[in-house]
Amino acid sequence: MSAGQGTGRPSGLDGYPVEVRAEVAHVRELVSRLHAELPRWGLVVWTAGNVSQRLTSADLFVIKPSGVAYDDLTPESMVVCDLDGNLVDGTRSPSSDTAAHAYVYRHMDRVGGVVHTHSTYATAWAARAEPVPCVLTMMADEFGGDVPVGPFALIGDDSIGKGIVDALATSRSPAVLMRNHGPFTIGPDATSAVKAAVMVEEVARTVHVSRQLGEPTRLSQDDIDSLYARYQNVYGQ
Ligand SMILES: O=C(CO)[C@@H](O)[C@H](O)COP(=O)(O)O
């Protein structure tokens, strides 16, 4: 795939306004830095996870190149794609999950960031195709209920993206466990999606440990709604 292929634009960002190129520079730096959070929080091994953020000034997003070690990622090595997943700017092949990120951006206007990992406990629940039940205040706060499971889908076309969008359409959760694959998380920006990736691993681990001791107690729907409303609207600064 060559830069600008199928877009009718010249290669790279030359045809885009200066404010778009300035935002690309900022988002390249942000997305590069956020990739370092994945190994820091123990969410990935080797190169197995990716972060993207959509631009506000154009229908483009920034994502990592495929199969490059986290220590070697730089703002310059990030790639820019359009919302069909075509490479627009960059010298490397985009992440193998680019089509899934692009599908989410095309179908969920409120989403500005997407993250995928294979973090151990969340992926263990995905392997069992079992939603993580809402048995913790932290889950009610962050996920507003159970963490749902999406269908199994092979990589390479829109199947994963469609599975993510369909599963999240009926949930308040910013995380979905794609069956036999792993977690995908969303947010208004990439930082929020990284936070959701950290939180889903934490609650998957805690609920798993709780299950070793017996059956955890579900929160009532009223309590989940109350906790979710407080955390989403009042918590923090
Ligand atoms: O799930 C997969 C592959 O099955 C991917 O998430 C890889 O684990 C990371 O791919 P790149 O982002 O490096 O292409």
TrEMBL record:
NCBIfam families: PRK06557.1 (NF005123). The lineage of its organism: Bacteria, Bacillati, Actinomycetota, Actinomycetes, Micrococcales. One of its GO terms (molecular function) is metal ion binding. Belongs to the aldolase class II family. AraD/FucA subfamily. Its EC number is 5.1.3.4. It comes from Sanguibacter antarcticus. It catalyses: L-ribulose 5-phosphate = D-xylulose 5-phosphate. It holds the Pfam family Aldolase_II. This is L-ribulose-5-phosphate 4-epimerase. Its cofactor is Zn(2+).
